[in-house]
Amino acid sequence: MKPLLPLKPIALTVFFVLTFACGFGQDHYRLAPFRTGAAVGGGGIVFAGARFYRSSISPLTLTQVQGIRTKGPNTFDGLFAGGRYSDDYRRASDVMNFANLAPVAFYALPKYRGEYLTLNIMALEAFTLTAAVTQLVKVLAKRPRPFVYHTQDIYDPHHPDARLSFFSGHTSSIAAISFMMAKTAIDINGDTSRKRKILIYATAATVPAMMGALRMAAGKHFMTDVMTGYIVGAGFGLLVPRWHRL
């Protein structure tokens, strides 16, 4: 059977792009083609595998939904979860998710332009690794979303997506991008004052927190879902620049 995509040309193209990036604007970061390729490629494979498995997840049965509603969420999540599905908040979070493209514009600013390609490949690396871990945990955990616990049923509680609450992919991805942009901004502006560093990180911390709030208001995630997504995304966002720092 022939592969669906011409994998060899794609692999060669990725390799040469990474190789070019390694010699482009190396003032603060350096990419290693094989290491970065393994991170992006490996993360992509894990993500694709998790998404494929996701399509085979069985929907909740009526008996399971009734049992979930009888039991209720844990005490901690129950304190914060309204639980009712809101399409307006869901749409707002989807619109905000376009902020993951921010590095494309941010790194075009004069201060970062010399390392534009390197920085955007690093952003892709952070995003891919975060997405891979997020999707893998989702399909393994199969945690019911908050709206499943309510009788409102505006969103079908039997849909397979209703079992993908843990943890929040919207929150993890935006946290990865926000914290990576903050870390690289501080690294490249080496004379940044302490007050300015606090301001940069406070801004980076606020954006994913807003996303998490929207996802909870939409009834798509519990507090522990967005907290975990926040930590995982922020971790990759801070670690990837450190990994490539000269």
Features of the shown structure:
246 residues, mainly alpha, 10 helices, 65% helix, elongated, disordered N terminus
How would you briefly describe this protein structure?
With 246 residues, this protein is mainly alpha-helical. The chain has helices at 7-22, 33-54, 62-71, 75-80, 87-96, 102-106, 116-141, 169-188, 194-217, 223-244.
Largest sheet: none
Q: What order do the SSEs take from the amino end to the carboxyl end, as H and E? A: HHHHHHHHHH
Strand fraction equals: under 5%
Write down the overall geometry: elongated
Distance between the termini: 44 Å
Give the strand tally: 0
Please give the domain count.
Answer: 1
Give the low-confidence spans: 1-13
Helix content: 55-70%
Rounded to the nearest angstrom, the radius of gyration is 20 Å
Number of helical segments with 4 or more residues: 10
Strand-pairing-aware structural class? mainly alpha
Mean pLDDT: 88
